[in-house]
From TrEMBL:
Organism: Actinomadura rudentiformis
Pfam families according to UniProt: NAD_binding_2, RedAm-like_C
SUPFAM superfamilies on file: NAD(P)-binding Rossmann-fold domains
Domain spans labelled 6-phosphogluconate dehydrogenase NADP-binding: 7-156
Protein's name in the database: NAD(P)-dependent oxidoreductase
Lineage: Bacteria, Bacillati, Actinomycetota, Actinomycetes, Streptosporangiales
Length: 281
């Protein structure tokens, strides 16, 4: 029988709890800590060990997994265990910026703590399932050492030794998601009472069909299949129709001047100038 390595989870919000439950089901001895100790109650009934202090949480395990609200919060938590962290590995799933990840990695190095940053591309219910995947960057030695354990949480994708790379890709993916979600919400508002049927029978199937077509165009920086000059007209029409429905137009109006500017340069079939303009906006 393969021995499962012990793991400590710091932070028991919905995601931290899902990580702990998944590791427990996989047979890993799991220690948990949260500032509000009662959040560990359910996990303790499933076999987790509740640590009373951060120092207790760190003791006896070499793999620390953290998922809290902010990097500053995590730094404050770990400060209370300073002097006991050397030789351990911190995998940090807290959402933050590339700069924050690099700063925390530098602090971890001064503690003798190996650092891996991670971006979880899943909601808590997906953890441990086939569609969950997690981005990692930072210490390759630490990632390689613990990859079999991390793979129990979701498919692993290592992006390199720069600890800021995983949070960068995480935020980029979320940017696309939030843009899509904002557009979907606006579309549903336009059709009003028919929103549920519209979303299920028209919007979602249409988006799925477009994904395979649009992906190569984004990679190539071209929009030959649907030129920007035509799309600029379409967006203007959407804005006017939305106003006619009494809706706000903030989810689209920020794109219209950029697209009109690009079309005016005579490269209306190119996607690359749109990307460049967004960089400068």
């Amino acid at each position: 029988m393969t021995t499962r390595i012990p793991v400590t989870i710091i932070g028991l919000g919905s995601m931290g709890s899902a990580l702990a439950q998944t590791l427990l089901r996989a047979g890993h001895p799991t220690t948990v800590w949260n500032r509000t100790a009662s959040k560990a109650d359910d996990l303790v009934t499933q076999g987790a060990v509740r640590a009373e202090t951060v120092r207790d949480a760190v003791a006896g395990t070499d793999l620390l997994i953290a998922v809290v609200v902010q990097y500053e919060t995590l730094r404050g938590i770990l400060d209370s265990a300073e002097g006991t962290l050397a030789g351990k590995t911190l995998v940090n799933f807290t959402n933050g910026t590339p700069e924050q990840a690099r700063e925390l990695a530098a602090w971890a190095e001064r503690q003798g703590l190996e650092y891996v940053d991670g971006g979880i591309m899943a909601v808590p219910a997906m953890i441990g399932g086939p569609e969950a995947f997690i981005l990692y960057s930072g210490s390759q030695a630490a990632f390689d050492r613990y990859q079999p354990t991390l793979a129990r949480l979701g498919a692993t994708r290592y992006l390199g030794t720069d600890p800021g790379r995983a949070p960068l890709y995480d935020l980029a993916l979320l940017s696309g998601l939030y843009g899509l979600a904002g557009g979907a919400g606006h579309a549903a508002a336009m059709v009003g009472a028919d929103a549920a049927e519209f979303t299920e029978t028209l919007f979602v199937p249409w988006i799925k069909a477009l994904v395979g077509i649009l992906a190569p165009e984004v990679t190539a920086g071209s929009s030959e299949g649907s030129p920007l000059d035509m799309q600029a007209v379409v967006i203007d029409n959407i804005v006017q129709a939305s106003r006619g429905q009494g809706l706000g137009t903030g989810t689209l109006t920020h794109l219209l001047p950029i697209m009109q500017l690009i079309v005016g340069t005579g490269v209306g079939a190119q996607l690359k100038p749109l990307i460049e303009q967004i960089k400068e906006a």
